[in-house]
Amino acid sequence: MTKFTPTLSKQVLGSTLQVLLFALLLAGFGASAALAQTRAYVTNNNDDTVSVIDTATNSVIATVPVGASPAGVAVTPNGRFAYVTNQLGNSVSVISALSNTVVATIPVQSFPKAIAMHHSGAFAYVTTSGSNISVIDTATNTVVNSISVTFPVDLALSPTADLGYVTHSSVVNGVTVINTATNSVVTNIPLPADVTVTAAVSPDGAFVYVTCLTVGTGSKIAVIDTATNTLVTIVPLPGTFAPGVVFTPDGALAYVANNGGGVCCGGGGGSSSYSVIDTATHTEFARMPIGSPNGIAVTPDGAFVYITDLFDNTLKVVSTFNHGVAAIVPVGNFPQGVAIATLTAPPTPPPTLTERVEALIAEGALSQEQGAGLLDKIREATAKHEAGMTAAACNQLSSFINQVKAFIGNGTLTPAQGQPLIDAANAIKSDIGC
């Protein structure tokens, strides 16, 4: 419903006009471009904090306290909220990107680890210990459902379909496919591995890359065809542990974190690195050294991959152009997960009818007396409507429109100044049933 309000005090009027003028400037120069900012969120497991990083400058702009032992992190598609699993807090912290503060804490089952966001942003899915995936409604920040899955470890959701892919501990030698529309298990895909570790779905939803670990031979990637839920091929990896995999936005490359086990993860004792995979041929074509990689994410433009490094408490920024480290960002203690999204500001609401009149008074198009007459009609229309006197409110709005037309007719207002007032008043009349 179109909003109309009574006249404002002089103090409020000043701030209203500032907001209005700012909104008009944004409308002229592009609000989304002016306010968009890409941020990376890193969970610092031993600090109970999250580092917020501006990817334009690769600098930490905020450190946000969360629950005990934060691990996984996922961001809503509009970048406005980050959801963080607190392993020892048995909860999920919700961080507002606008204030860099925790705005909600959601209790979940014990030891939540991984979290993934539905492509709509409406739900977040959290793996917990035992045999449960908690489903969080992001509109209410409450757990609204759960999916029974044996010992879930990590999960990846399709960007194009209502499907998710869940990895397991050594109890289950494969991947479980879930339906996020019905919150039910679709099938289990057996894989030739002792442990399935982490997963990523290609941007077109056609393939799932699952990092696996086989005792004695180390890591590999199982490539799954989502159309048939079958294993396509195996991509050999170093004899380590692979806790992270991500696709570039165009789907041409995949990056894999290979942890040698020096700091964590029980790897095969080899050198830690990150692999670059050609997804057209499903082959590794580059391998670069790194300290102790864990979480991995890619910027929306595909220019950089961010990898948390447990060894030196940093975030390594890798260029997808030459696959080398382009920057190093110090973060908190024992950084685990990382997620990246572009913050888009909420749309600026259009000015109210009162604000439009006040703006014309401020710029001198209307005198104080002329403006007061129009504001009186708005105030009377508001009072009549709130009293349930719709016909009387409609009459006041019609009188307002006639007065504006008169101002246009005698040259007080130009059509460009007056017509928006008429359109807004007509919209209000339509909304209240005139």
Percent helix:
10-25%
Mean pLDDT level: 90
- Shape descriptor: elongated
Structural class: alpha+beta
Radius of gyration: 28 Å
Strand content bin: 35-45%
DSSP strand count: 28
Count of DSSP H/I helices: 6
How is the quaternary structure best described? single chain
Structure description:
By secondary structure, the chain is of the alpha+beta class. The protein is 21% helix and 42% strand. It has six helices and 28 strands. The protein has helices at residues 10-29, 31-35, 353-362, 368-386, 390-409, 415-432; strands at 37-44, 49-54, 59-65, 70-75, 81-86, 91-96, 101-107, 115-117, 123-128, 132-137, 142-147, 152-157, 163-168, 174-179, 184-190, 195-201, 207-214, 218-225, 230-236, 241-247, 253-259, 273-278, 283-289, 293-298, 304-309, 314-319, 325-330, 335-343. A four-stranded antiparallel sheet has the order 3-2-1-28, with no helix packed on it. It has a four-stranded antiparallel sheet with strand order 4-5-6-7, with no helix packed on it. Strands 8-9-10-11 form a four-stranded antiparallel sheet, with no helix packed on it. It starts with 9 loop residues before the first helix and ends with a helix.
